[in-house]
Amino acid sequence: MAINLATFLFFGSIWLGISAFFLLKKKKCKVYVLYFTIFYVYLYKVFDYTLFQFQSLLLLKHFVPNLMLNGLRAEKSLNLIPLATLTPGDVKTSLLNVLLMVPFGFGLPFITNFRMKRVALAGALFSIAIELLQLISGFMADITFRVADINDVIFNTLGAAIGYMIFALFVRMYRLLFRNWKMSAAPILQYIAERPQVDK
């Protein structure tokens, strides 16, 4: 519980600092900060799901050496062979990896002007960072609950690309349904219609 609270306070402090920077230094509008906040909360939940819930157990083992954890040996926590063997369980995990990153591809274009290639690249780099953190923490503790898997990176990147396609379709549909958005839309909705990525 204390670990989760410390993590929340740490990321909350980072959010406050970045939000203040956007508002005071970059002169970003409050609507931008709102979309950034939504995306930031999503990133926090991804880290919580992929790292914090499991790594907190490793931290506990550091203070309680005799604690028995049913995990993997660190040397068995790496797979660099893409799509070599996909069991039914692996297929399910791969689909979950795609779904995990769809919000990344959908949300990133709301706070950047990135198009498909850059969103997919950002998704790949984000996924690689998570896998490396899982691998490093596993070797440091000599036990892990996650496998650093190239397949995760592949399907995470696919999820980010799908998320961007949904974003582009969403903005186009919004513009078609609300052609008079410039005169009538609230700032939050107008921000959606003004996204430049879908302009020809």
Description:
With 200 residues, the protein is mainly α. It has one domain. It contains seven helices and four strands. It has helices at 2-25, 30-63, 88-107, 116-141, 150-177, 181-184, 187-193, and strands at 72-73, 78-79, 143-144, 148-149. The strands form two sheets. The chain has a two-stranded antiparallel sheet with strand order 1-3. The protein has a two-stranded parallel ribbon with strand order 2-4. The longest helix has 34 residues, at 30-63. The N and C termini lie far apart (50 Å). The model has no long low-confidence stretch (mean pLDDT 82).
In short:
The chain is mainly alpha-helical and 200 residues long. Helices cover 72% and strands 4% of the residues.
List key phrases describing it.
mainly alpha, 200 residues
* Neighbour order of strands in the largest sheet: 1-3
Radius of gyration: 20 Å
Order of helices and strands: HHEEHHEEHHH
Shape: globular
**How many DSSP-defined strands?**
4
Mean pLDDT level: 82
**Estimated share of beta-strand residues:** under 5%
From the N-terminal CA to the C-terminal CA, the straight-line distance is 50 Å
Helix fraction, binned, reads over 70%
* Overall tally of structural domains: 1
Total number of helical segments? 7
Major sheet description: 2 strands, antiparallel
The computed structural class is mainly alpha
Low-confidence stretches: none
